Amino acid sequence: xxxxxxxxxxxxxxxxxxxxxxxxxxxxxxxxxxxxxxxxxxxxxxxxxxxxxxxxxxxxxxxxxxxxxxxxxxxxxxxxxxxxxxxxxxxxxxxxxxxxxxxxxxxxxxxxxxxxxxxxxxxxxxxxxxxxxxxxxxxxxxxxxxxxxxxxxxxxxxxxxxxxxxxxxxxxxxxxxxxxxxxxxxxxxxxxxxxxxxxxxxxxxxxxxxxxxxxxxxxxxxxxxxxxxxxxxxxxxxxxxxxxxxxxxxxxxxxxxxxxxxxxxxxxxxxxxxxxxxxxxxxxxxxxxxxxxxxxxxxxxxxxxxxxxxxxxxxxxxxxxxxxxxxxxxxxxxxxxxxxxxxxxxxxxxxxxxxxxxxxxxxxxxxxxxxxxxxxxxxxxxxxxxxxxxxxxxxxxxxxxxxxxxxxxxxxxxxxxxxxxxxxxxxxxxxxxxxxxxxxxxxxxxxxxxxxxxxxxxxxxxx
Amino acid sequence: xxxxxxxxxxxxxxxxxxxxxxxxxxxxxxxxxxxxxxxxxxxxxxxxxxxxxxxxxxxxxxxxxxxxxxxxxxxxxxxxxxxxxxxxxxxxxxxxxxxxxxxxxxxxxxxxxxxxxxxxxxxxxxxxxxxxxxxxxxxxxxxxxxxxxxxxxxxxxxxxxxxxxxxxxxxxxxxxxxxxxxxxxxxxxxxxxxxxxxxxxxxxxxxxxxxxxxxxxxxxxxxxxxxxxxxxxxxxxxxxxxxxxxxxxxxxxxxxxxxxxxxxxxxxxxxxxxxxxxxxxxxxxxxxxxxxxxxxxxxxxxxxxxxxxxxxxxxxxxxxxxxxxxxxxxxxxxxxxxxxxxxxxxxxxxxxxxxxxxxxxxxxxxxxxxxxxxxxxxxxxxxxxxxxxxxxxxxxxxxxxxxxxxxxxxxxxxxxxxxxxxxxxxxxxxxxxxxxxxxxxxxxxxxxxxxxxxxxxxxxxxxxxxxxxxxxxxxxxxxxxxxxxxxxxxxxxxxxxxxxxxxxxxxxx
Lengths: 463, 509
Hints:
The complex is a heterodimer of chains A (463) and B (509). Helices cover 19% and strands 38% of the residues of chain A. Chain A is an alpha+beta fold and 463 residues long. Chain A has two domains: 7-212, PmbA/TldD fold (2-Layer Sandwich); 213-241 and 353-460, no CATH class. In chain A, the strands form three sheets. Chain A has a six-stranded antiparallel sheet. In chain A, strands 10-9-8-11-18-17 form a six-stranded mixed sheet, with helices on one face. A five-stranded mixed barrel of chain A has the order 7-12-13-15-19. Chain A is globular and about 70 Å long. With 509 residues, chain B is α+β, with helices and mostly antiparallel strands. Chain B folds into two domains: 7-248, 2-Layer Sandwich (PmbA/TldD fold), CATH 3.30.2290.10; 255-506, no CATH class. Chain B has helices spanning 7-10, 14-27, 83-100, 133-148, 232-247, 263-275, 280-284, 353-358, 395-400, 451-456, 503-506, and strands at residues 32-48, 51-69, 72-78, 117-121, 155-171, 176-194, 199-204, 255-261, 313-316, 337-342, 345-346, 368-369, 378-379, 383-386, 404-416, 422-434, 437-442, 445-450, 458-461, 468-477, 482-490, 493-502. In chain B, the strands form five sheets. In chain B, strands 1, 2, 3, 4, 5, 6 and 7 form a seven-stranded mixed sheet that branches. Chain B has a five-stranded mixed beta barrel with strand order 8-15-16-18-22. The longest helix of chain B is centred in the N-terminal third of the chain and has 18 residues, at 83-100. Chains A and B meet through strand 1, strand 2, strand 3, helix 2 and helix 3 of A and strand 1, strand 2, strand 3, helix 3 and helix 4 of B. Strand 2 of chain A pairs parallel with strand 3 (72-78) of chain B.
């Protein structure tokens, strides 16, 4: 049996086996360490590592260039010829690809020879005892704790037959905590994301959980309907991520999106939301650094295997309320007449002139409904991007700039695009973790928003 | 057709890995050690307007070791399947268990299970991974092209998703099992766009995913209970007309309607409002930070009036072609079936071995599952099904009994709160019912209800002729997140006076 090869050996050996039009090899090594607790006791934990190797064969066929993509776990060097062969077979059977294009060439990273970076339980050396202290204090005070902490490191090695050799180590961490008290009739939540757990302040997070549990001592009747909503940065993040994922250029040009223009084409260059709003992404955004080049194992409306290795640049999706860009591949960009804009794994929303924290925003709000986070958000109508979902773990009534008590949870029906048209006030953008999207998209910088006429459709009895 | 487990999986050093990890775990003081080797093949194929948009084949393999040491779990996994790795994983899992002990106040106890040794493969005729990519592509392209030939259809998408899961399990009690199961789902979606108005609508096929092979996509296979072969030709032939009618359908007047719900929609309501609500780990609070809890708390077992007296819901991991069907779960527990709701009353939960022991039950009902070697087994949903009424009415009789209502077909958007009270669903087609007859389509329909009110309003349940096994590949739960495939059998059923929203008005239009 072969020794376990390095990512670089896998890339070079596989590329040397290729005799077709071209080849892309991606080695993705994912290390994850996690702790999970519930009912104030640790429940599960894990420390795992997995390497996947994707071979994308590009083969000349009748009518153009075909692509075939095969991914396997941890192959030996002996496995690589079979992998290459299977990818070539798939390509030939699939036929000419509509997104065929020249591979980017000649980009070689200085750190190409660096190895894989790992995530281990050592990441919890400081945090685990602090979690233990929070759980113990909660037990003494009648508070149950539930939560999850994770450190992930994904190392990418990408090589192509056109000389690309790119490496990137993506460090990603998150913390989520839920606290319940009074026979679980009160419930609160906090979440934080980041590259590492270094900045996590457990005492501060626990204080926030306890403060909001205390806010729930008084219940305030609030009928469903349209109310001014104070959306935390987490709630804002979940709405913006849904909108971002619905911003695919081809879908818009096909007439199937909120960004489709009546009469055909897209709404790019139209004023679509409040002119104070800017939504952007940048792989170099400080504190939110992410993959600076395209990595994809399969083509779709928003990705093309032929774009692997292309640089990912800063992009303004909406600027001063005007839709400037949509997610495109080289192929779809050319097809629909837009700029090539690959998706980026971070997102920032800013409202011009907005200042202060969530607490500041509450203090300057007359009447409103403060929403901790949103859950089970789903698209009801893509044409308006109407979403439905639920409030979760804390809905508070604000009167005269102060929280006066807690209301029930509600089902909402509203569109993030419309939300951005109804902003009455906003705070400064801060690092945030969307509750619903935390599994998929964690690098967001979002402001708290005061949104008029938010549609709290019906009462949810959940608490 | 009786299948056998793939030779390439059996050629892995399964027993040697198990022997190495079990011995090492015991030497280090573990009172329980289990070892899983998992190899999952996944095929994706997606076409847009009869041309391939994307295609991929993924093989995910790995080795997992889980231990109980000093009453605490420890878990470690790797993508390398060798005895040396197995020993190393046992070391790491024991270390993690001991490191975690200071945070653990509730000791892990596992309900006992007899020792099982054997192998099993699910029922399918044609292994989808042995079908040529060209054949798969051509079939989906032909179906897409047929839709695109209609003037109403502006675009058509088609997709195929096939999975083959091979699992070896061994534990310190002596259980040692090997299993292989195949599942498949396919759809074709017709899209109409009116550039003049900006309006667009979609209409999808409603074929449920099932535990069958490529024969299902061909429209072949035998009917076994609710697992039926799909008549693709008939559904595809009707799709453009449905779409054209939907484009000009009147917008629904919001209010209360009697709903006749087809299994292609009702399976999802069952999944969300019964399936997840009766997971004991949720009911006890273990998912409070993520998936949520449940209104169906253990103190209500045996007394909670979940729905009308017509409501009988079972859990099982045995029904043929079910997506959750196995012979043994990922804790070595033999597959079973049991009652969850009987005559409208909550009588049962879904369990894994730790939940069963904590709840004081003598045995798990076999609902442990991990979606890969990289994840630890947690309690996941079995096939949860609403039973048909023996000798009950057929579809025509059920619609004929409704004076003023809506007939709901196919699933689309879904959402439910974290305690499984308040839900909202849409669908593919909403047919107006007046005086017991269908009178054309409606648009902008969403139905919204509270779980026990909804099931309490169920006034008629169809017979076996209306029963269909629906389901999904992508049920999510747990942190780190895991996905599971699950089936839900349902008859056509009638619900009285359900709140119907107009989604366009909800959007302020």
